[in-house]
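Suppose a classmate hands you a notebook page containing two proteins, each written out with its sequence and a corresponding row of structure tokens. How would you begin to make sense of it? This section walks through that situation. The first entry is reproduced here exactly as it would appear on such a page.
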Amino acid sequence: MDLPVMPPVAPMLAKSAARVPPGMLYEPKWDGFRAIVFRDGDEVELGSRSGKPLTRYFPEVVAAVREHLPPRCVLDGEIVIARGGRLDFDALLERIHPADSRVRHLAEVTPASLVAFDLLALGGSSLMDTPQLERRRALERALHDAAAPVHVTSASEDLELAQEWFEQFEGAGLDGVVAKPPDLPYQPGARVMVKVKHERTADCVVAGLRPHKSGPVLGSLLLGLHDANGRLQHVGVCASFPMARRKALMEELAPLRMESVAGHPWQDWASEEAQAAGRLPGGPSRWTGKKDLSWVPLRPERVVEVAYDHMQGDRFRHTAQFRRWRPDRDPSSCTYAQLEEPVRYDLARVLSGG
């Protein structure tokens, strides 16, 4: 491979904001695997955000790159899977599998698509120092004849339209809006864009904790919600506390600590059969490897209000944020019924620029 921009390249990142800022180039925020795509003739590499290649996990995307992208180019985009008219992040996670036969089977039954949103190089020229708006126009020209499963994301300088995307596209599984300064050069690894994501709150049962890796202070709170059968399901964690707060929380929760998991709603957390039957903490994952997933059980008597952006199936997609304790709430009242369901939106319309 001999390109003007060579792998690995760390993707340009975004910092969070509460509102969509004016005077920017706006795009929908896709919920998939970020990928820097390198093509030099038949040679194709899909680079992940961490720098590790994704190429072997998405053979159908590699084939689509060869069919639809210019012979020599580097672009920034997102690998996504659509299922049931929505983006399906769980289906993406299933693709990270060591068995090539499994990967190729899933490529047929749950094929992925590539959504392009930036162009870093074309032919023998690097576009890294080219302003964002010019790179966008070059991307549109370069992929003018591209067809599914390769898509060019929608983009607009219209703030009002960006607000509509933010309100409507969540129903198709997208998770917000990205705003880019029009004169921005491509800056690998730098948080120079802006992302605006949905935030909601939920009251959850605190049923366990994990100590922090640095010592005997709180690392994260383990959160639970009751399902329709009254069973407490593990829905995610609440973390990102200042160190002083971690120490105080460890002391505050000490009276709730149980000597063992016996009698706890998640007492079978180490059982593969129990993991398959419900959501429990510490489940096996190809992403966690040998990471210690043990936890400290707490009597499920306290309720916390947390902020979250959206759900991935029956759990929080990202780490939830602590808002306040809710001593007025009974743990048994913390159910899935409180969660807001976004209005459905046709993903096909989003992919087609509608």
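The notebook's second entry, a different protein, reads as follows.
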Amino acid sequence: MSTRKNIGFLSFGHWTPHPTSEVRTASDALLQSIDLAVAAEEVGADGAYFRVHHFARQLGSPFPLLAAVGARTSRIEIGTGVIDMRYANPLAFAEDAGAADLIAGGRLRLGISRGSPEQVIDGWRHFGFVPADGETDADLARRHTEAALRALAGEQFAEPNPRPMFPNPPGLLRIEPYSQGLRQRIWWGAGSDATARWSAEQGMNLMSSTLKFDESGEPFHVQQRKQIEAYRGEWARHDHGFEPRVSVSRSIFPIVDDRDRRYFLGTGERADQFAQLDGGRAVFGRTYADEPDALVDQLRGDEAIAEADTLLLTVPNQLGVDYNAHVLESVLTDVAPALGWR
């Protein structure tokens, strides 16, 4: 059980040309994402994480954004939650990740996964990727992941040209640029106990979101805590050479001023939600929105947060950089210390 938490934000990067939105264009979404990361570092947050969705008015191409955030910040972790590996060329992924990590000085924490329900039908096919005979799209994502992990680890596999344009080091060649240690900073976004165990087998950190497939009918935070336990139990059976990290995501809004009351007073959900997702039943975690003292009491009972070392706060990015920086600061100063997270 972890008390002190690394606390960061997770932004979906929504943009919409609507007069009530502070984020009306793709340019707004990207530039404000950079500004929010800078603001998060200034208020003492530990991480800036971004959701990746293709064919959507959201953040779709993560590495230019991650590199820009890395160039503008100096301390915070910079990551994704998550990159859909069905769409990813494993070697191009490794090249881009290595370059962005070097720009950031080794601060990338990349969440990857099979992905989520899509905007389009079988969108990965438009990117040129098709499951092999007998494969599912989940199998495709895992195959791409395993190849990417080998490349990130510096596997030398490519036969050098005997007459290269530039001199080569001896032996087989690897993907360049290579960033030492990045392989150990990859997280798998797991939606079930089984995929959590698989991520432990592969030597990836665990990223668990605000939803998972319902496997017992129990409250979300209890199922998520059991998922974390399954992951750590599997990890203990392997010798990966480092201690894993576990993150969970939550929507937490301390109500401390009139803006908070206008946006979130009365919106906190006291119960989890159950719904159909990708052909199965899923459980969605509640939203926490209340005055700080009440939030402290509510969050103290969240078993999954207690087990995780990293907490990602989902932010309503369309409300703008200033407001979201205020939300982060409120959690860090009005809630986290009372729970021992700071």
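A careful reader of the second entry would note: The mean pLDDT is 94.
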